[in-house]
């Protein structure tokens, strides 16, 4: 994938900010529209359970499904609430493929950069990560699951991108700094910085969040 030049990067960031308003929560392809935590869990029932019991329930439920899931401690998702877009690098057999991650409420939509460049606002989501904060205050956890277009993104690749969300939006200011540069100083953003952080963290397509 051809990386964006500096001037195009700045233009692209402005475009993605406008994209958030256009997309909203519209369902597309095989994705579920307005997928709430209540559609997955009986929220009244889990109020009586401990955080560790909910972790077990959540992971057990999704272990039998062809998708990914995670229970993330609140301390590990310090910057997710800022809902800022970012550029992610997915390791491939030869080099990296870049994906744009764009928030729409609790949904994080991933679209390959080449699709955004060629299709603009019509570029479809290829992966959606759902981050549920319903139990954040009482149980101290954020529940995550995903839906993906299996023609373009495998479960292992979805896991790699999900791991990167924790890497860049977690509690480490050093890595979140790249997100800030991407959004507020786009002329200074370098896509190779994403790859450098990714390689240093040893996050790969087969890494699993537990």
TrEMBL record:
PANTHER family: ATP SYNTHASE MITOCHONDRIAL F1 COMPLEX ASSEMBLY FACTOR 1, CHAPERONE ATP11
Gene Ontology CC, one term: mitochondrion
UniProt source species: Sinocyclocheilus rhinocerous
Pfam family, one: ATP11
Coiled coil: none
Name of the protein described by the UniProt record: ATP synthase mitochondrial F1 complex assembly factor 1
Record field: transmembrane: 68-90
Keyword Transit peptide part of the UniProt annotation: yes
Main location: mitochondrion
């Amino acid at each position: 994938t051809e990386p964006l030049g500096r001037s195009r990067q700045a233009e692209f960031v402005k475009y993605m900010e406008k994209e958030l308003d256009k997309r909203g929560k519209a369902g597309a392809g095989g994705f579920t529209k307005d997928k709430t935590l209540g559609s997955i869990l009986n929220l009244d029932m889990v109020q009586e359970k401990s955080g560790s019991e909910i972790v077990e329930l959540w992971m057990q439920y999704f272990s039998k499904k062809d998708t990914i899931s995670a229970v993330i401690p609140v301390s590990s998702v310090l910057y997710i609430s800022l809902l800022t877009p970012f550029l992610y690098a997915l390791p491939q057999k030869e080099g990296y493929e870049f994906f744009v991650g764009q928030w729409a409420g609790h949904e994080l939509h991933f679209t390959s950069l080449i699709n955004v460049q060629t299709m603009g606002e019509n570029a479809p989501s290829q992966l959606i990560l759902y981050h549920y904060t319903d139990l954040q205050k009482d149980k101290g956890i954020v529940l995550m699951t995903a839906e993906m277009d299996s023609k373009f993104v495998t479960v292992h690749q979805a896991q790699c991108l999900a791991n990167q969300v924790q890497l860049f939006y977690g509690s480490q200011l050093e890595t979140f700094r790249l997100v800030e540069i991407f959004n507020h100083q786009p002329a200074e953003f370098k896509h190779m910085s994403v790859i450098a952080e990714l390689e240093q963290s040893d996050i790969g397509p087969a890494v699993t969040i537990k």
